[in-house]
Structure formats: C-alpha cells, structure tokens
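Q: Predict the bound structure with pyridoxal-5'-phosphate.
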Amino acid sequence: MLDIESIRNEYPILSREVCGRPLIYLDSAATSQTPRCVVERINEMYFTKKANVHRGVHQLSQEATEMQENTREKVRAFLNAAEKEEIIFTRGTTEAINLVASSYGERLCNGDEIILTVMEHHSNIVPWQLLQKSKRIRIKVVKINENGELNLDLYRNLFTENTRFVSLAHVSNVLGTVNPVKEMIAIAHSHGVPVLIDGAQSAPHLKIDVRDLDADFFVCSAHKMYGPTGVGVLYGKRRLLEAMPPYQGGGEMIGHVTFEKTTFAELPFKFEAGTPDFVGIAAFSEAIDYINRIGIDNIAEWEHHLLRRATDGLTQIPGMRIFGTAAEKSGVISFLVGNIHHYDMGMLLDKLGVAVRTGHHCAQPLMQHFGIEGTVRASFGVYNTEAEIDAFVAAVDRVAKMF
Ligand code: PLP
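A: Predicted complex:
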C-alpha cells in the first residue's frame, strides 16, 4: 500500500479550498497536478542554471545541454527505446502527432488509406484530416462494442493493399479502455503497416515498453505525467525517423546552411528546430524520477483500486449510465445521470469542491457514436484518496437528488 498522505504533502494545491470546500481534484486525465520536486527543479533552473542548450562553450550552456541529453536518456529508459536518438522532444502529444502526420504523411499518395479508431482524441484525427487537403487519402475507423472495446475483427477487415498507416490511442481519455495495442500492432505489421500509439493516457498510468509493443511511434505529454506543461515526447524507430523529412525549419536542426542549400542535423536534432523548452525538459526528468520512485505498477494498482471503488459507488445511483465498461480499464470514468445535463452536474459538483471534466473531451466522434453531446468525467491520479472517491460519489448522488 502506498502512503498517500505523504504523497499528498508534496502537492500544496491539494490542500486548497474551492467554493469554501476542500478541493477534490478528479481531472488528472486533462492534466495531473505537479509535485514539489518538479516545481523546485523549475525554480532551480531559472535561478541558477538557465542557459541555452547546444549553443555555448561556456559552462552554463554545457551544463544545460548535459541536463537535456541526460533527460533524453531517462525518457529512453522509461519507454525502453533502443537508442536515445529515437527520443524527440516536442511541445506535447499533439505536436508529436502533427509531426508524424505531416512528415511521414509526405510519403502518402492519393488513394492511400489510414486506420484510426472511433475513440481517438481530436489530436489524433485532425492532423490526418489536414493531410487530406493536399492528398486524397482515406480515413477508416475501427468501431467499438457496447463496453467500449475495439472490434478487432472489424479492425482486421479494414486492411487492404492500400493501407499505409495506423494511429490509435493506447488508453481512451473518455472510456478508460486500455486497447490491445500489442496485438493490433502485430496485425498491422503482418500487412507491412507502421503504427503510432497515442500514449497521452497510458504513459502516466501503465508500464510502457515500446520494444515489447513493437510500436513504430509512441507519443506522450509530460503535463499528464506529474511533469511540467509544454513538453512532450515522440519516440520513433530510427529507421523510420531517418527516412522522414524535417517537420519545422530553424536553428538546431541544420547541418550546414547556405542560401542555395541546407543540410540537416542527425537524429534527434533534425526534428527539434529552435530553442527547446529546456527548463521544462529538466523538470520532466524530475517527474520521471518521481514516477520511478513510487513505481508505475504501484500507481496503476492504486488507481485501479480507486476506479473500482468509484464504479461500485456510482452504479448504486438511480439513472446512472457509465460510458466504458471494458474489462481492461484505466483510471477514468465517464457518466451521465438521468436527463441531467453534464454541464449542470459539473457546475454543481464544483460548488461541492469536486473538480471533474464535462463536455465532449475532444472526442466528438465518440460522442456521436453514443448519440450524446458530452459526459461528466472523473479521472484519478496517485494522490487521490478513498475518502475523496466516497465524497465524490456522495456529491454526485446529492446533485442527482436535486433534479
Ligand atoms: N491524446 C489523448 C488520448 C489525450 O487524452 C490528450 C489530452 O487530453 C491528447 C492526445 C492531447 O494531449 P496534449 O494536449 O498534451 O497535446
């Protein structure tokens, strides 16, 4: 069992009040809170270590560069990638997917097909649609069953000789479904098709091993992993990254520039144009150490326990509809009660101190699938307690009875 009280002590925000009541923060899928050690690292960087990376011979710059490259190695180990050159720092999951869609997408041709799933976040839909402006590529969509699990037979049948790419969420930010990505990658590879895994909702909660999964690309965001905002990761297999053109041009990503011709830097710098968020990257290093200290398996086990407790409590409430009841589920629970509008439920919960998400959760096609406009979503982090879950369930019950 984790010592949740001492974990909570690392998060000053968790002792504040909202609307005169103790905050119960159940929106970690949108962004997790940040422990003291990560914030202290940001302060330390600004107060004593700030210097631009890869640019100076002076000691500060060299220290900052070393710190950034050490973080790259730490991320490599966290994801179990083969080489640190396969780790590209981005602004977040969204930018990482845009990078792949734009750069890998250059090789797609009219008539090519890509496969997505109905549960994708908009950031794994819209970048591919942007490609459709210049190329007539076709997007095919894997549907789900009534529990919110992907239909693998349908997935298998979507492949044709024109399929060129698969991009899918590891964990749904709405349903919590943990998709069988290893199996899905193997199916895609049997057709010679590469796969991008959107790990925005898995990297904070599950052990990730990109080599065991055999993922071609894997992306995630630091701010959902107890880390800072503005930093994300693109993992890609070296062979694929090397064959891809740069995504943005600028400093850092060049070999040699003349007005006639520019050559590009080696991996990973080819994809890191401009000054990176090196302060954020240093803080991300601290967040990874933090997760490793607690143990990702311990985090997963605790969140699972909270999920079961919340699910048991909520299902006692008359009129409760839970969206996503997959056998493999992560710490996210989406629901509606009777005819109560999700915004009304969210606003009234806020008055009771409970911070949940309401709306379409950047997954409008999934909402269309269910024929609804939105849901209320509670999502958990390692710092949530059983007492908070019970208070949340009681608050939902109280709001339900008001209508
Ligand atoms: N993909 C999924 C599954 C998400 O849940 C999110 C954010 O909620 C994103 C992508 C986008 O992440 P970011 O806004 O950090 O780029």
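A: The chain has a mean pLDDT of 97.
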